């Protein structure tokens, strides 16, 4: 028995976004053409344009889908009842794996090379990726303040401070591509040090 039309349509959209995502990472936004993506996805250009009116909307959908998956996973980590030390450690480990993945580094490089020509794409990535993550962390920190587990703080500033402490140096090194990839133990040590330093400032 075949799947209902709605499920088939959603599955096709997911497939198109998977193929488009690979092309954007391999060829960059400018180098990836809808014709190439459609051909590799075994779909017509009409099928693409019926879902995504232009390449910018396709890129937005690719980023939105990936950040939706990330947000769902974060929702299982940054839960209000989780104590700060445990939640921030789980969050830190998840984020380092994400921002240091080859896929994320490749996407950052693509955007850094094309931001002058396509500044809107960089804005889309920031709003749906880093800004959304900081917002989720800030909300968790506010909840912990309300429960008396953290000192009163500016949640947005504190969330940015945590992210900078956690990932700024490692992301820079990974983006340059001239340093060895950090080991699992190195990442765990970085998370541990970041959480301890952060809680020395904001813990109760």
TrEMBL record:
Matching Pfam families: TetR_C_7, TetR_N
Residue ranges flagged as DNA-binding region: 33-52
Listed InterPro entries: Homeodomain-like_sf, HTH-type_TetR-like_transc_reg, HTH_TetR, TetR_C_Proteobacteria
Keyword annotations: DNA-binding, Transcription, Transcription regulation
PANTHER family attached to this UniProt entry: HTH-TYPE TRANSCRIPTIONAL DUAL REGULATOR CECR, HTH-TYPE TRANSCRIPTIONAL REGULATOR RUTR
Organism of provenance: Granulicella mallensis
Residues covered by the HTH tetR-type domain: 10-70
Statement: the UniProt record of this protein carries the keyword Transcription: yes
Name listed for the protein in its UniProt record: AcrR family transcriptional regulator
């Amino acid at each position: 028995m075949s799947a209902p039309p709605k499920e088939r349509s959603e599955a096709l959209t997911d497939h198109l976004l998977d193929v488009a995502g690979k092309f954007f990472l391999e060829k960059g936004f400018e180098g990836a053409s809808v014709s190439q993506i459609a051909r590799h996805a075994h779909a017509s250009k009409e099928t693409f344009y019926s879902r995504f009116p232009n390449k910018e909307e396709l890129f937005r959908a690719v980023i939105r889908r990936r950040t939706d998956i990330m947000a769902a996973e974060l929702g299982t980590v940054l839960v209000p009842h989780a104590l700060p030390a445990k939640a921030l450690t789980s969050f830190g480990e998840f984020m380092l794996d994400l921002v240091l993945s080859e896929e994320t580094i490749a996407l950052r490089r693509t955007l850094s090379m094309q931001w002058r020509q396509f500044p809107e794409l960089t804005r889309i990535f920031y709003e749906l990726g880093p800004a959304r993550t900081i917002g989720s962390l800030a909300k968790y920190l506010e909840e912990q303040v309300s429960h008396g587990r953290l000192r009163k703080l500016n949640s947005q500033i504190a969330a940015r401070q945590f992210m900078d402490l956690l990932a700024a140096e490692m992301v820079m090194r990974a983006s340059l591509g001239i340093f060895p990839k950090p080991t699992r133990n190195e990442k765990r040590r970085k998370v541990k040090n970041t959480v301890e330093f952060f809680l020395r400032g904001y813990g109760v």
